[in-house]
Known about the structure:
Layout: H1 2-29, H2 36-41, H3 52-66, H4 92-105, H5 108-120
Helix pairs in contact: 4-5
Amino acid sequence: MATFVFRRLLLAIPTLWFIASVIFLLSKLMPGAFGSSSLGQQEAGYYSRSDAASREHNYRQFLEATGQDLPLFYFSITSAALPDTLHRIFPERDRTFLKKLSWQYGNPMAATHFSRSLKEV
């Protein structure tokens, strides 16, 4: 009986690890930031009718409060075509656009400057 319980516990550990890993990966593959729908329901939220600067400020405050402005891991192995501060670019559509530009042209600094110049116009 003890060996049966011991074997079941040994099988439970990798099973729980696998389930936790799948849930983590699925949560990272979902588009958008976690809780952004609740931000949109607030009167001064990101999707309010206020000016763009205050919406972006509210969005950044929300991400800082929930810890979503931090990188996913302490280190990352990526191509040199991607900037190392890509996790700081919000909203996600701007980050995706900058990532595509960086991959296409291989120059992250030029892509960043181009993205900033588009925002200023």
